[in-house]
Specification:
single chain, 262 residues, alpha/beta, Rossmann fold, 2 domains, 6-stranded mixed sheet, 6-stranded parallel sheet, globular, binds 2'-monophosphoadenosine-5'-diphosphate
């Protein structure tokens, strides 16, 4: 029987994970089956237990269950503890393990673009779960200064205070969206603005050399403004592939090459 994998969420129909994992499997010669699982909003834990009791090997977790997955795990990686969210589950000796591969997925996508993170200064817009998940991997990859800008300043300040001990090698600070200024190597849009079709306005006196939009396949005013400045830009498909590769590696000990799947 093929090794069994799944992605769990609600909704789940839109998920690209089965397609990606089947492509990785084909490339690496691993015999697996990867399915979508729609869990009821109050049925996450039961669904996970059922999957692993039927010899499931690994599961990806998507909206809205990443925090519940974090709470359910008996063993967590350092980066999952810091993210307080889990997107990758596996069972080992009867112990449910959890990791968060989103941040490393972003780092790998940025590296695949040949954008240099060494000693970089990064501005992240947004202070939700998406931002929380990427700060530690970005700092481990070389970011030296990270500014978190958010519409609700208090949320950015909270994130900085939660994370600063985890990344002592970098300078973390918070600012309001209305106070955006300065010079950055990279600016990342980690808000859900593009998903809901809202505009983000980047002031002229904010300077940056690269722009990454975490969403993909949506019109993005953030990217439009970056495009107008004629700098290198990317949307989030690479991050999606990157987090999937990292999960595939945890489960199968083989790492497909990200550039083969962009
Ligand atoms: P996620 O887990 O995807 O990060 P989230 O926790 O709901 O989702 O966070 C969404 C982020 O997008 C927040 O930083 C939010 O700003 P607030 O904290 O002020 O709500 C930001 N956001 C959403 N819509 C926005 C908009 N139209 N303009 C600016 N920021 C927006």
């Amino acid at each position: 029987m093929s090794k069994q994998f799944a992605v769990i969420g609600n909704p789940i129909e839109h998920s690209r994970s089965p397609e990606l994992h089947h492509r990785f499997a084909e490339k690496t010669g691993i015999d697996l089956e990867y399915k979508k699982r729609l869990a009821p909003l109050d049925g996450f834990e039961n669904n996970v237990n059922e999957f692993f009791s039927q010899n499931g090997i690994g599961m990806n977790v998507t909206v809205p269950f990443k925090e519940q997955a974090f709470a359910l795990c008996q063993q967590l990686t350092e980066r999952a503890k810091i993210a307080k969210a889990v997107n990758t589950l596996w069972m080992k000796n009867g112990v449910l393990h959890g990791d968060n591969t989103d941040g490393q997925g972003l780092v790998d996508a940025i590296r695949a673009l040949d954008w240099d993170l060494t000693n970089s200064q990064i501005l992240i817009i947004g202070a939700g779960g998406a931002t929380r998940g990427v700060i530690y991997p970005l700092v481990k990859a070389g970011a030296k200064k990270v500014v978190i800008a958010n519409r609700t300043l208090a949320r950015a300040e909270q994130l900085v205070s939660d994370l600063k001990n985890a990344v002592p090698e970098a300078e973390l600070s918070a600012c309001g969206l209305d106070k955006l200024e300065g010079q950055f190597d990279l600016i990342i849009n980690a808000t859900s603005a593009s998903l809901s079709g809202d505009a983000l306005i980047l002031p002229e006196n904010l300077k940056f050399n690269h722009a990454y939009e975490m969403a993909y396949g949506k019109p993005s005013s953030f990217l439009d403004q970056a495009r107008a400045r004629q700098i290198p830009i990317s949307e989030g498909y690479g991050m999606l592939v990157g987090q999937a590769i990292e999960a595939f590696y945890i489960w199968n000990s083989v790492r497909p090459n990200l550039k083969d799947f962009l």
